[in-house]
Amino acid sequence: MKFSREIRTGLIMVVGIAVLFWGVNYLKGNDFFTRQRTVFAVYDQVEGLTSTNPVMVNGMKVGMIHQLTLQPNGQIIVSMHVTNKVIVPRNSTAEIFSTDLLGSKGIRLVFGDSKEDLVDGDTMTAGVQQTLSEQVNAQVAPIKAKAESLLSSIDSILLTVRAVFNENTKNNLKRSFESISNSLASIENVAGSLDTVLAKQGRLRVIFDNIESITTNMKNNNENLTKIITNFSAITDTIAKSKLAETLDRTSKTMAETSALMERVNRGEGSLGQLATNDSLYTNLNSSAHSLDELLKDFQANPRKYLKVSVISFGK
After folding, report:
1. Is the pTM of this model over 0.85?
2. What's the confidence (pLDDT) of residue 94?
3. C-alpha span between 125 and 61 (Å, rounded)
C-alpha cells in the first residue's frame, strides 16, 4: 500500500510534534513513560532553586523539581516528581542543598525511620542546608574571634612594653649590662687565679696527702682518742663533783699563810728566821753538826772506849 507524499509528510509532522511534546514535558519533569508520584514541600527560602533541578538520594537522581509556587504569606510551595521505584519513608526530609561549587541547587531526600511509605500528594518536611559561604563563615567565625582576641592582647602587650621601656628603664638596662660586663671580668680574673692554683697542683696534693695522713692516724688511733676523751671527761666530772671552790679557798689561805711565814723568816723572826738571817747561828749549828758527825764516826770505830762494862758486875 502506497502512501501519498502528503500523508507521509503529515505522519512525520505528527511524530515530530509528539516527540517535541514529550521532550518539553520531560524537561519540565513530566516523564510519561515512568511511574512517579508528586510530593510537596513548603519553604521560607529556596536559595535559588528552580524547576527541573534534580531530586537526589545519596547522590543518585530519583526525581525532578516540577513547579515552585509563591504563596501570599511569602512561603514557597515546591512540587516535585519522585519515581515510584524508590521507597521513601513518610517522615523523610526534603533538604535544599548545593549540587556543585558553582551554587547549583537541588533537593536531597533525607530518609526518616517511618514504616509508612511516601505517597502521591504528601507534603514532606522542608529543610535547607547551609551554603558553602555559610559553612565557611561558621568555620572561620571562631578563628576570627580568636584572632581579634589575639590582636587585642598584642596591642595591650605593645602598650605595656612602650610604657615599661621608657628613658629610666633604658638607663637601668644600660647600667645592668655594664654590671654584667664587670661581673664577667671578675669571673675571668677568678678563672685566672684558679688556673694559677691548678698550676700549683703539686703543693695542693702534698697538703691533701698530709691531711689524709692525719685523718688516717686519727682513724687508726680512734680507740686511744676515745679513751683519752673518756678519761678527760671522767676528770672533768670528778672536778665538777668535788668541792673545787672549797679546795681553792683552802689553797688560797695556805698560800697566804706561807707568804706571811716567809716574810717573818726574811725579817729574822723565830728560829727559822734567825737561821736564815744570822750567820753565827748557822756557823754554830754547822760546827755542832760536824762535831756530832765526828763523834758518831768515832763511836762506830771504838765502841769499847765509850762502853766500859765489868764482867764481874753480871755475876752479882
Report:
1. no
2. 92
3. 19
